[in-house]
Design goal:
Elements: E1 6-11, E2 14-19, H1 30-44, E3 51-55, E4 60-62, H2 67-70, H3 75-78, H4 83-88, H5 90-93, E5 98-102, E6 105-107, H6 109-116, E7 119-123, E8 127-129, H7 143-151, H8 153-162, E9 165-167, H9 168-173, E10 179-181, H10 186-198, H11 202-217, H12 220-231, H13 238-248
Parallel strand pairs: 2-3, 3-5, 4-6, 5-7, 6-8, 7-10
Antiparallel strand pairs: 1-2, 8-9
Helix pairs in contact: 7-8, 11-12
Bound molecules: ligand LNIPZVSO.
Ligand LNIPZVSO binds next to helix 2, helix 3, helix 4, strand 6 and helix 6.
Keywords: Fatty acid metabolism, Lipid metabolism, Lyase
Pfam families: ECH_1
InterPro entries: ClpP/crotonase-like_dom_sf (IPR029045), Enoyl-CoA_hyd/isom_CS (IPR018376), Enoyl-CoA_hydra/iso (IPR001753), Enoyl-CoA_hydra_C (IPR014748)
Length: 256
């Protein structure tokens, strides 16, 4: 599928998807989200890819869903089409680790898209927010749920009820992002992290990602049961044997 609104490339076992609508600060229109979903499905089924980096431009990761596209839509016409589920949610069903490398604006659907990813690395220029209230709506792609779980009720409520932005430093203090780096270092740092993750056992990465995400979705006892059900099947796999043998033999493991 030729893409008009995203650019994709691979670097060894790492795939990079760059949102590419600079004229509208990467506003997330239906076509862009369909292209993103297609690219994610493709890399998720490509055995040579073990980690995915999603990024935007220096000025904007994404300034939200496309207001101009949404302006005149109404539920009676579009309510039967689960567009959010069929395209936006593909990020959350991607089995491989997805790193969001955020520079500039990540607002509304842009912040929600970043939060659907597994790890957010922020440039010191990043600005996060859910300003939907200012245009008469609320977050519609998980923002009220993921932001609250990530930063706590009071700060999430303040952000969503006022629509204010938070800068990268505040986002790091609030645990919305894993780390803040100088803007010039964003992609080098994101790629370094992605390569490190890509060197690990794919089956262990899958079980770890699923178990951590289960912590968002369930009560503690159920989450621990889910983790145990993910942990025990790893024993007897070639990568568990190789990983533990390599430690004992004092050598690097080969998870290829
Ligand atoms: C039943 C009906 C269903 C309908 C929807 C279903 C399908 C979609 C699924 C959506 C699920 C997610 C929902 C999400 O939670 C909702 C949103 O994301 S709403 C949008 C939230 N974002 C914003 O409100 C931010 C808007 N942008 C700004 O505030 C400013 O642009 C800025 C980021 C502060 C930057 O300001 P400036 O530096 O001054 O730059 P400009 O404002 O001049 O912008 C430059 C250029 O980009 C255009 N643009 C910016 N943001 C958007 C956007 N979100 N949508 C469309 N276009 C955008 C801006 O218009 C300028 O373009 P120009 O006017 O020059 O052509």
């Amino acid at each position: 599928m030729p893409y008009e609104m995203i650019v994709t490339e691979t670097d060894g076992a790492v795939a990079v998807i760059r949102l590419n609508r600079p004229e509208s600060l990467n506003a997330l229109c239906d076509q862009l989200m369909s292209e993103l979903a297609d690219a994610l499905r493709g890399f998720d089924s490509d055995k040579s890819i073990r980690c995915i980096v999603l990024t935007g431009s220096d000025r904007a990761f994404a300034a939200g869903a496309d207001i101009k596209e949404m302006q005149n839509r109404s539920w009676p016409e579009t309510g039967l089409d689960d567009f959010i589920g069929k395209s936006w949610e593909v990020v959350t069903t991607t089995l491989k680790p997805v790193i969001a490398a955020v520079s500039g604006y990540a607002l509304g659907g842009g912040c929600e898209l970043a939060m659907m990813c597994d790890i957010i690395i922020a440039a010191d220029t990043a600005k996060f927010g859910q300003p939907e209230i200012a245009i008469g709506v609320i977050p519609g792609a998980g923002g009220t749920q993921r932001l609250t779980r990530a930063i706590g009720k009071s700060k999430a409520m303040e952000m969503i009820l006022t629509g204010r932005m938070m800068d990268a430093e505040e986002a790091e203090r609030a645990n919305l992002v894993a780390r803040v780096v100088p803007a010039a270092d964003l992609m080098p740092e994101a790629m370094k992290l992605a390569r490190r993750i890509a060197g690990m056992s794919p089956v262990a990465l899958l079980q770890a990602k699923r178990s951590i995400n289960a912590a968002f979705e369930t009560m503690l006892a159920e989450g621990v049961r889910y983790e145990r059900a993910s942990f025990l099947p790893l024993f007897g796999t070639p990568h568990q044997r190789e990983g533990m043998a390599a430690f004992i033999e004092k050598r690097k493991p080969d998870f290829s």
